[in-house]
Design brief:
Elements lengths: L5 E6 L8 H10 L3 E6 L9 H8 L3 E2 L5 H6 L2 H6 L3 E7 L1 H9 L5 H8 L4 E5 L3 H5 L1 H12 L3 E2 L3 E4 L5 E5 L3 H14 L7 E6 L4 E2 L5 E2 L6 H12 L3 E6 L11 E4 L3 H10 L5 E4 L6 E3 L20 E3 L3 H6 L8 E8 L3 H12 L3 E6 L11 E2 L1 E5 L2 E4 L3 E2 H19 L2
Parallel strand pairs: 1-2, 1-4, 2-3, 4-5, 5-6, 9-12, 9-14, 12-13, 14-17, 17-18
Antiparallel strand pairs: 7-8, 10-11, 15-16, 18-20, 19-22, 20-21
The chain binds ligand PMT.
Ligand PMT binds next to helix 10, helix 12, strand 17 and helix 13.
């Protein structure tokens, strides 16, 4: 699989660095050439000698080393790889990458590289869940940086939770998947919806919902990474625009509907937005006054256009694969299966959005992929991992369908 492909492995300072010689060995068994950059912190957990022995190459450590620079300048180091893999990726190196810092050789290489980057985070669960880390990971994801793991489990610090570095075998599988998937959807066009819609009551009030756009944006980023020409039609969210994606910002369901239909023809449509089913019949032109003794206003609601159903019924412009999401709070698979039939889409991705699941706005999702044959349940995964799995399944489906 890896013949002729070169990995630059950046080893930063977490206890999981002890797994790196094994990771290098497994990558080399798959045929990848591996060269290592070791941070000062990383060198506390694994020696340059061990990494040099398993990689069969020099281990680079020092930005200001005359020897390292004359042998292999840091710019060349960053460009001579097909993939830069950061494993373990500590909270510190993730923060430095997000901020664009270049205080040592590893971060300088990461800032200078024009090659794809993948990170395998490893840190304490609280550090992983800290809003600063969440924001930094989102920033990196939106720049197109791939993520493998972390996994849940017991940690070296004695706590339990999300933050363990993925097993070397899983990292190797993700690297294989990266090379297999890169450019796989080249020549395909995709339209994705994401986020909530806001339905105006008057110029200052609206009806909305809790969708953050994390799931839809991750799907757009994953499809773009695989080479699809991707248009993301998004309602109001705090998510940054994913790189390599053409983004159309809308507010209401009607605006989203029109933007999606204008984006056709497409090969793939994925509707992950939480579109308001209804809007206010008579949107007030001026702010509705409370009035001293006036009764609260009554709102009459009328149905919004169904974007998913419209895409699935778009005649000769119908995307070859139309995928909906189903947000359910009970009888998840049964209700979603009925929804798939009602809306005329090919697949529906069902997720439980009961408040206890944290699906709306959270970072993880447990979904069931439903097609005409039945339902396949996926484990609880990060929204990025759900997006990557779904994008891979979409590519497989289109490849099967192409004679
Ligand atoms: O944004 P996050 O915080 O990451 O949360 C992700 C999510 C929970 C919003 C996402 O995973 C999800 O479930 N999206 C669909 C939400 C929804 O509106 O579900 P629904 O069951 O009401 O609608 C079914 C399908 O029809 C969806 O594909 C929806 O986009 C689509 N729809 C619904 C109504 C409408 N008028 N037009 C539509 O296209």
């Amino acid at each position: 699989m890896g013949e002729g492909k070169r990995i630059l492995l950046v080893v930063s300072g977490g206890i999981a660095a002890y797994k790196c010689p094994d990771l290098v060995r497994r990558l080399r068994e798959r045929g990848y050439g591996v060269r290592c950059v070791l941070t000062q912190g990383g060198a506390q957990f694994v020696t340059p000698l061990a990494l040099g022995a398993v990689s069969g190459d020099t281990v680079y450590q020092d930005l200001f080393s005359l020897t390292d620079e004359s042998e292999m300048g840091h710019i060349r180091l960053s460009r001579e790889a097909d993939l830069v893999l950061v494993a373990p990726a500590t909270a510190n190196i993730i923060a430095a990458m997000a901020a664009g810092l270049a205080g040592d050789l590893a971060t300088t290489v990461l800032l200078a590289t024009d090659k794809p980057v993948m990170i395998a985070p490893a840190m304490n669960v609280r550090m992983w869940e800290h809003p600063a880390t969440r924001a930094n990971v989102t920033t990196l994801r939106n720049r197109g940086i791939g993520l493998v793991g972390p996994e849940a489990g017991d940690m070296a610090c004695g706590e339990t939770g999300m933050g363990r570095m993925s097993d070397p075998n899983d990292i190797v599988a993700a690297v294989d998947g990266f090379f297999r998937n890169a450019g796989r959807l080249a020549g395909r066009k995709a339209v994705i919806t994401s986020g909530p819609t806001f339905e105006a009551i008057d110029p200052v009030r609206f009806i909305g919902n809790h969708s953050s756009g994390k799931q839809g944006h991750a799907i757009a980023a994953a499809l773009a990474h695989m080479g699809a020409q991707t248009t993301l039609v998004t309602g109001p969210t705090a998510q940054p625009d994913p790189s390599g994606v053409s983004v159309i910002h809308v507010r209401s369901a009607r605006e989203m509907h029109d933007a999606c239909l204008e984006a056709l023809p497409a090969d793939i449509a994925v509707c992950a937005a939480a579109v308001a089913d209804w809007r206010v019949a008579d949107e007030a032109a001026q702010k509705i006054k409370k009035g001293a003794n006036a009764a609260p206003p009554s709102l009459t609601l009328i149905p919004n256009p169904d974007i998913l159903a419209a895409l699935a019924a778009a005649g000769n412009k119908r995307p070859r694969l139309v995928v909906g999401f189903a947000a359910e709070t009970e009888n998840v698979v049964e209700n979603a299966t009925a929804k798939r039939a009602r809306k005329g889409c090919d697949w529906i991705v069902a997720n439980d959005v009961s408040p206890s699941t944290g699906t709306f706005g959270g970072d993880a999702n447990a979904v069931h992929l439903i097609d005409g044959e039945g339902a396949e349940s996926w484990p609880l995964l990060s929204k990025e991992a759900v997006a990557e799995r779904l994008a891979t399944r979409i590519a497989e489906r289109l490849e099967e369908a192409t004679p």
